[in-house]
Structures are given as C-alpha cells and as structure tokens.
C-alpha cells in the first residue's frame, strides 16, 4: 500500500502518461473508428484545439463539462481535452431519456455541454459544437490536470429516483493503473475496443489501458457493437489484445469468436466485470481455447472505487465449483467483511467494505457522512475511511473472495448497477398502480433481466392497458438498461411481517 500511496502523491496522472506517449509514438495510431484513424500526434492536436475552444467559452480548471457525442474519435479527444484544462467530464448517454439527462445536468451544473450541433435542449446549459471546436486554432498551454482534481463524474442509479454523481479524481484513476500495470503489462502493442458506453465506467478502463501506454483504441459503431458476427470480425481484423466484457455480453460474443482458430486471434486477456460469471459459456470456451491463451480474468469493482477493486485469473477449479471468485484485492486496498443478520443463513458472509486510494471522495452534492455509505474503522490506532459496497462476499477455502450478490435493492444487469427503487419510484407515478416492486430475475429465454410486479384496482385495470402504459412510461423516462423486460400484474403483493414488500417470495414466485 505504501508504494501505491507514495506514487500517486507525485504529479503524474494518466493524462500525463498519454502526453508522454504522444511524444514517444507520434505516428502510431491512437484511435480508430468506423471512418478514420487518428495518430497520437493528431489526437494531441485535436485536444489542444478543443482545450482552446473550451477556454474561449470560459471553462476553467475545476469546472464541469458535459459531453453528449457518438462513439467516434472526436469523443475521445473531447474527454481528454476537458481533463487537460483541469475540468471534469460528465458523460451523457445519447440513448437515455431526456428526463434522466436533465436530472444529471440539474445536479452537476456543468459550464457547458459538448455535442454535434451546438444547440442545447437543456435550460441553463449552453452547448458547443464539436466540429467548430476542432476548427479552433490550437494554442500550447500547460496541462492543468492535477492528482487531486476531479477527472470525471459518472452518475449511478439512486434510491430516490434521482441518479447520484460519483466524482473520481486523477489520483483515484492513477491508483487503479499503478495497481494493475504489473498484472497486465500494458504496452504500445496493445489494442482494445471501446465496447462500453462512455457513460459506464468500464469505458474509463478501456480508454486508459491503451492511450496512456502508446496502444490503440478501436471504436466500433453502434451497429457493429450490437452484431456479434461483425464485432468478432473486428476483434480479429484489428488485432485486439485486451477485450473487456460483461459475462452477459461474452455469452453471446464467445460463440462467434470460436469461429477463429486461437492462433488467428491476438487476444492476451479477456477481462470480465460487472456481474456474476456465466460458467456454461466459460466451459464451452475452455473446450475451444483453453484458459491460458488468452488469460481470462474476473475483476470486481464499482464506480465508487474506480472501476476495478479485485482480480482473479479464472482456472479449471473455478469452472468445476461454479463460484464467481473475485479473488484478491488490488494493491492499495484494505477491506472488511461486515457480518450480515444472524438469521440470513450465511454466517461466514457479509457486506464488503473497501478503503484505499481508489475510493471516491464522496457523492456530489450529498452529505456523505450522513448517508451511511462511508464509515470509519480503526486499525492499529489509525482510522480508515471505508466505502460500504452493498455487495455480499465470503472467503473460499483458498482464502479468496467469492461474490454472492447484493444485500439491498441494487442489482446488476448486463454490468449496469441498478437501484430498483429508482425504477419503482418512476413507474409508481402511473395512476393505476397500487403497489409496485421491480426485481431481478433469470431465465433461459431472457437471461438476466428486470421484472416489474404491480397491483392495480380491477376496474381501472380493465379500463386501461396498464402494462402497455407502463412500458411507454419506462421508455420515456428510463435508459434502456433500466427498463423492465417483463411486467406482471398481481392480485395481492406479498408482504413481510413488518409490512414491507417480500421480494424473496416475489422472486420465488417468478421461478
């Protein structure tokens, strides 16, 4: 831990490493998308142009800048330019409902938003056209990214129906890569896909695992990303070496990757995160490729602890035991396992609490001491600040951590951490709803998905097609990954003795 702490106290950030890589490898391809390939020299020039345009618009160090752009090289230049002036970027998902993005902007209060047309549909948030910004004459000025400055703010699901902003500093980000550089040996020959939305923190790992080391970031367009045949062909053609996947996504893409002989793929690592492993897929994968080339790595982490917190190289025993082993914590972390209720049947399990240089300073615009997510514990006369993850873990016989699930209403679907209470809060607006509960379920047909269970007065239910109206309400107000796949009307909502909705019985009734 001391080595990590002392290293991040220096002035280097991932952005500094990118600038060094640009000096060392100016002609190497930094970013490619469906339409263009951009060298490190060109990407740096774009960054300087956008940085100057931001400065001309009044943006300064410490400001927040929202970004709503398609997955192209211009997006990457924008994110890095924002950090270059010492500001923090706030990603807005283009496919999310306007209401959700409005809530984010209302909370974050950014200086401006970068988009493709320079027109803002959000009050009090002016817009800048990325194309005009790239026409701004470049001016050399010093990189203002400092370790204690905020690099980005990603919004996660919130219990009140309002998303929560998680600021991550440059020091948090640098700590992540200081802890993983020796594990993955990132280098200028690496190439990775920007497979995930830049509003999802897996994208942060994808971007910086190559751009800080002279490697290539390959950006598939939306059509390619959603079509396994095209995506896996791209992985082959672009010699991808680092592939990041949620287990759900890999269960689809693995079948198509098996078209290629192992020697025709350049993959060094396939890195999983975001949810429990799919052992049926992994067992089939092992038959084709084995487990050593590429290495399969399961990583656990959450937005509040900067993408990844633990790592585990998947082995044959894992497949036999079918346990979602998340392994050992990355260097720099301390952890506690807080016991759960005595009657829950998992005496050796508990909630994982994490402390270390990757933990966020706290939620934006919230009383972080009062919300119960951050606590202090003493060890050897030193008080450490811990983040309460809400994830249930235990140790296996080898002393490694095993992920068991969530201890509250948060669930993970396709890698997205979702507070089901947020969905319930929004869908409960419908006038025909008496009781409502959203739970995670799994089936062979639908995989991991959300189910909305509700009760409604008979007369009202007959007069209106409530389910279709709920689907429409979800479409208007929730991003795709938060929309229930199934809806079920109940005569009576099951309740516990203390009057709360009995989610366990509800879940069992769906199986």
UniProtKB/TrEMBL annotation:
Domain of life, source organism: Bacteria
CDD domains from the UniProt entry: A_NRPS_Cytc1-like
Domain AMP-dependent synthetase/ligase residue range list: 21-364
GO terms, molecular function: phosphopantetheine binding
Domain AMP-binding enzyme C-terminal, chain residue ranges per copy: 422-500
Single biological process term from Gene Ontology: secondary metabolite biosynthetic process
One cellular-component annotation, GO: cytoplasm
Classification via InterPro entries: AA_adenyl_dom (IPR010071), AMP-bd_C (IPR025110), AMP-bd_C_sf (IPR045851), AMP-binding_CS (IPR020845), AMP-dep_synth/lig_dom (IPR000873), ANL_N_sf (IPR042099)
Stored PANTHER family: FATTY ACID SYNTHASE (PTHR45527:SF1), NONRIBOSOMAL PEPTIDE SYNTHETASE (PTHR45527)
Name the UniProt record assigns to this protein: Amino acid adenylation domain-containing protein
